[in-house]
Amino acid sequence: MLSRVFGFGRRSFDSLSEQEILALAISSEEDDGRIYRAYADGLADDFPQSAKVFEAMAEEEDGHRDSLIELHRKRFGERIPLIRREHVRGYYERKPDWLVRPLGIEHVRRQAEEMERQAYRFYVEAAKRTTDASTRKLLDDLAAAELGHENSAHELEQTHVPGEVKAEEATAEQRQFILTYVQPGLAGLMDGSVSTLAPIFAAAFATHQTFQTFLVGLAASIGAGISMGFTEVASDDGKLSGRGSPAKRGLTVGIMTTLGGLGHALPYLIPFFWTATIVAAIVVFFELWAIAFIQNRYMQTPFWRAAFQVVLGGALVFAAGVLIGNA
């Protein structure tokens, strides 16, 4: 770990020979081609047209690698030194975001642009380090090619992903985000905010003990979060419904349920009963309006209808808790 953080055991770029620079360029082009194919594989199911763009970009990287190998063969022979980006201090690294599913199409496009900019800077610096005319020309040509990849990527995108297809992909990505995160998170926030109102305020008015009320709220919030999380995971594996990873949905709904309950439980850490109760009631007000906002923003529910439904439901549960606590 320390060697990765501080660069122990790594070579500096300035210490590399021309042969090692060529070897590093070969391994980098090979890795980038594989990354683009991994992006294509990750996008193939949901964004097949964009996947074709990354397949084409991978083929271009293969062409660069082949040119570099041929140059190395002419200058240094068949044996290519084993040197990769992780062996060079300060060399750019690739975060393994291609392993994440689902892949976000806009994130992948931005990452591909950054990959090309990094490769361009490498070839510019590498060209400065060589004295061989043919090597320098190839490195300069590759730098220009990497710089021009942004334009070629746009051309490929226009070919494979015309405007209407890009709009469809953006809509599909937004829908996936809503199904995987927004809907479970909203359900958790509603359950945590509303269902815990009755036990928390019942305990508050029954005992007038702020810390005891906090403990009830803490137990209710965590218990509800665990229950909702496991229920979400068990209810749907996401394969037929297209709702995405059950683990992600379960974690989202569990966290949001717990936070929804803790919002109006935490004020009872205040030792003064009426102060804590007033603060908790204010927190409840903002929680319910946040729920209404999310419903309006992501679920296209008219704001005032969402607000009426949420506030009415919350008020009824709140009243039930107060009445039970005063019984």
Write a structural description.
By secondary structure, this protein is an all-alpha fold. Helix content is 77%, strand content 1%. It has two domains: 2-161, Ferritin, CATH 1.20.1260.10; 168-326, no CATH class. It has helices spanning 2-6, 18-43, 48-76, 105-128, 133-160, 163-195, 197-207, 210-235, 246-265, 273-299, 303-326, and strands at residues 11-12, 88-89. A two-stranded parallel sheet has the order 1-2. Helix 7 (197-207) runs parallel beside helix 11 and helix 9 (246-265) packs antiparallel against helix 10. The longest helix is centred in the middle third of the chain and has 33 residues, at 163-195.
Number of domains: 2
- Large-scale geometry: elongated
How would you spell out the order of helices and strands?
HEHHEHHHHHHHH
Radius of gyration: 28 Å
| Total strands | 2
Give me the CATH fold name of the largest domain.
Ferritin
Low-confidence stretches: 1-7
Biggest sheet descriptor = 2 strands, parallel
GO molecular function, one term: oxidoreductase activity
Keywords: Membrane, Transmembrane, Transmembrane helix
Membrane topology: Multi-pass membrane protein
Organism: Mesorhizobium tamadayense
